[in-house]
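User: Can you recover a sequence for this backbone? Please restate the input before giving your answer.

Assistant: Of course. Working from this structure:
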């Protein structure tokens, strides 16, 4: 029987005494073993959630791949192509080099010099040639290559990036700020078909610095069904320990109730010399010493 009153220190000591019994300890060891098994199953389900999850960002991005194997011109850029190191061969279009402003490189604001590369297949590819914090240096590099781009490599390697959306400039600075192949196509003559993204060179030619283009981070979208199963196993582990506690508590409460029933005062009246017939508490004594004797004294016996 369970009551809602607060457990007293004496009752807690008695409950602990029940818990220390060999049978209770054996049951506790069994409950712990079951809980450990459930916890291991939960850990396994958690690992399965990661294994079955969708991986965002591929480890293979650092393997240089021909650009035609990962993306095609005038086709939406697939996710696996973003951040991929690619190689491509082509020729630079003199007169199409330009400078972008407000380009952040490892926390520094500066300028990109951008070139127009026509691949051997005849496709247009925008290339971020290099970065510099000096506006004059960026413009000088673009001017130099617009006049003569023969010193630039014709076979280049770089990281393919998703193209930026074109936007209307609200600045007084005439230099564009976004790396948008769609916008460049309108400036470069005969620029179609064009790749929707752009390339940042792995090694920038002097006097520019290489544009910081780190490999994409690998992230995992967890499988939520496996996560749900993992949480279930954890709850089962807790339930195993709770069931052990309730079993011990039930044993304690049963023994307590039996002890209270054995100490009932009504069960000891037979052993009280002052209780029962003939004793001071016998109701018959009142009649014997009271009205019954008075009536006998008033009436003489009849002969």
């Amino acid at each position: 029987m369970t009551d809602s009153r607060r457990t007293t220190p004496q009752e807690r000591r008695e409950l602990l005494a029940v818990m220390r019994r060999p049978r209770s300890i054996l049951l506790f060891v069994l409950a712990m073993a079951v809980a450990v098994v459930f916890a291991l199953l939960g850990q396994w389900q958690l690992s399965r959630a990661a294994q079955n999850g969708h991986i965002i960002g591929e480890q293979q991005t650092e393997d240089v791949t021909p650009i035609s194997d990962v993306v095609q011109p005038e086709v939406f850029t697939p996710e696996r192509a973003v951040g991929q190191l690619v190689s491509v061969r082509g020729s630079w279009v003199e007169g199409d080099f330009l400078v972008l402003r407000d380009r952040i490189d490892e926390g520094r604001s500066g300028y990109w010099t951008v070139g127009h590369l026509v691949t051997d297949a005849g496709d247009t590819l925008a290339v971020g040639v290099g970065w510099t914090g000096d506006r004059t240096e960026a413009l000088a590099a673009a001017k130099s290559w617009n006049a003569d781009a023969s010193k630039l490599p014709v076979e280049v390697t770089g990281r393919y990036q998703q193209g930026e959306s074109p936007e209307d400039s609200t600045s007084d600075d005439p230099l564009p700020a976004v790396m948008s192949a769609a916008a460049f196509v309108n400036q470069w003559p005969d620029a179609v078909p064009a790749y929707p993204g752009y390339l940042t060179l792995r090694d920038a030619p002097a006097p520019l610095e290489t544009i910081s283009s780190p490999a994409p981070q690998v992230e995992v979208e967890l499988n939520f069904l496996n996560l749900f199963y993992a949480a279930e196993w954890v709850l089962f582990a807790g339930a195993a320990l709770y069931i052990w506690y309730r079993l011990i508590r039930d044993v304690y409460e049963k023994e307590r109730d039996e002890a209270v029933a054995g100490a009932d005062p009504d069960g000891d009246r037979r052993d009280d010399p002052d209780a029962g017939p003939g004793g001071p508490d016998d109701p018959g004594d009142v009649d014997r010493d009271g009205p019954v004797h008075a009536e006998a004294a008033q009436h003489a016996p009849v002969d």
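That completes the design. The longest strand covers residues 108-119.
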